[in-house]
Amino acid sequence: MPSLEPIDEKILSEYPIPLALKYQRVLMEEDSFAKARSLTGAFEALLKYCLCITIQDSYRTRLVTPQFSSANLEQILNLKASSIFKLLIDNLFLFNHSQETIFEPELYLLFYSEFNPNAQLRNDTSGLIMALLEFAKEYPYRGEVKANEFEAEADFQSYLPLLKGLYGQAIFLANLPLLYFHDPMDEIEAIAQPSTASLATAEILMGAYAISQAMSNRRFPGCPFGRIALKSRRSNILLSLHPLVMLVETIELLSTTSDDSLSIGPHVVIFYDEIRGIDQEKLLKYWYSEISKQAQTSEAPKLALTPQGGIFNKLTEWIKTNRSSNKTRIQLAQQVSKYIEQRNFNAAITEFEKIAEAEPDNLAIAARLAELYLPANKRLEASYNFGKIAERCLELGLIPQAMLMYQRVHRLNPKDITSSLKLANICSEQGCKEIALQQCERIVENASQINDNEGVLKALELAVSLSPNDANNQRRLATIYLTKKQKPQALKCLLAAAETLYAQNEYKQTAEVYEEILTVKPFHQLAFTMLGYIYLQLGDNEKAIEMLVPSCQSEPTNVDLLRALAHAYLNANELENAYKTFSSLFRLDKNFASEFLELGRRFLYDGNLDYVGLIVDECLQILVSEQKSQQVASLLESCLSQNSHHLPTIKRLVDFYILINDEVNLKRLLQSLATEARSQGLLEDAKTALKQLTSLEPTNRSYLIQLQDLDRYQL
What we know:
Elements (H helix, E strand, L loop, with lengths): L5 H9 L2 H12 L3 H27 L11 H9 L2 H13 L11 H7 L7 H20 L10 H21 L8 E4 L2 H9 L3 H4 L2 E3 L5 H7 L10 E5 L6 E3 L4 E5 L16 E5 L9 H17 L14 H5 L13 H13 L3 H14 L4 H11 L5 H18 L2 H14 L4 H13 L3 H17 L3 H14 L4 H13 L3 H17 L3 H14 L4 H14 L2 H14 L4 H13 L3 H14 L4 H14 L2 H17 L3 H14 L4 H13 L3 H17 L3 H14 L4 H14 L1
Antiparallel strand pairs: 1-2, 1-3, 3-4, 5-6
Helix pairs in contact: 1-2, 2-3, 3-5, 3-8, 7-8, 14-15, 15-16, 16-17, 17-18, 18-19, 19-20, 19-21, 20-21, 21-22, 22-23, 23-24, 24-25, 25-26, 25-27, 26-27, 27-28, 28-29, 28-30, 29-30, 29-31, 30-31, 30-32, 31-32, 32-33, 33-34, 34-35
């Protein structure tokens, strides 16, 4: 972190934690683009924090249940500086015609600059905001940045003083303590009867290190059931900011700390733009739907116009409570805090158990009690209580909280497979695919250690449903199915795994899977077929033949199988079998003439000219029609070069040149035929060749003389 100016130290140590954390990131980033984005993030955080206050405060002037319009909700979810600023101004404008005093007048004066009596300050503030809005357009917190790295760095350096200037003019926020009440009822009581004692039950969330300091002192139990409120600097009056600003826990299974006695990474999130592992929009909409739901229930309290707070404060009363007859809630909290400071956790637990018995529906109390079991080394009790809280959360539809409670159970007792499976399923239902898959992997590991095959099965089934293309999980699931003698399910998994691996060109692994399929179902036709293709691809021609022969017998008209088998024979140098297979293939599909001719070249290389001739006889007409005469001529001429006395080759060349009307080469071959036939005693073949030559060259008397000689020789 660079050297800090006085304003930097002021913001980091005294501003509300959502702003301090955002501003801290501005100072810590090193990459130019990250710097620019973080600057926009800090600017938006200031706007959003002020928007929270104005939205919440505006409800004190309304006599009907507030409704969030779709436009407002979209503005909030999109997190764009310009739309948030407009929404902020719109809400502040409500106070322009109201006799009510805004919770913090300086907030109104900061953004409604025309009402600020200081003309210079009005101009400065307006200029800062307009300039930063333009910067936010160029460098959105999320989205594409068109500038290059050099421009991003230069713009960051130019606009950072403007951000500091705006934060400096919002210094009044440092005098508005942000408070976190572990128990919603503590907040309600503090709002109804504000006093030093009632406020003492809250954590002060000011400065970037407020939460880490509280955690180091083993505080912050009860997340995520607490409430956040803002205290006026002029009195003890509170303005509840929940749920617009909430304390939540990050949904992370890989925690940075191994200390199970601490809560898992709690931090303040302003409009949830830092939540990892759970979709922001879903969570935000969830809380808004929760508000609406509570407002519509018959048991929900009626809205009353009060100076202390609005509907959000009243709606926290859905957590029912019973007052202790002997001690007030504040006194009990103070006594518990005293026991904790003395590290007398058993005594603290005893007090909390009394409160929990009196308030069985208070989830915050239940969570704090569960947390207290940890330093008392009562891990099983803590795990059990977190599990019960999670179940209650599910009943109430508090899905994010249920996830967090099940996460605590998993951390404390990884062998509690039932709770771990519930967490994995909830993550899956909430669209947290990667987290659900991580959880499934841990369940498989932990369940395997205790031989819980049913737990392994359910975890792998969920993992496969989330990621069907994970071949490893498909194979592992197949293994479990086989141990349970569920062959159809096992085959389905193995086939899916093989298909995935084959698509990834992982041929060796694919072959292993198909071989495994044959152990489950020895005559699986697809397995034979695919293994034939794969072994051919891998160059193992003997195995390819072994697999393709039965496949071709089952499907004798399958040209793909026949072609693969023919090539396997060809690669294995089983040329006669290759000829039989190619011949069958060619009868079914004439498109393989060139490949058939390639087999002829292999026979030529082995000196088997008769098979070359047979192949040419079968595919000659097709090759000529495809204007591939030169390939035929080249092959047959090569045969003649290898054995100039091979009469069948000479005859085929004669027939070929007659077919393509090549008179020059025809004469040459007829002369060769006449000579070779006479030398081999085949006088009729020689006479036929000479007669053909005579018809081609009637004036050439040498052919007639040769014919006469043959006739005299025969006599």
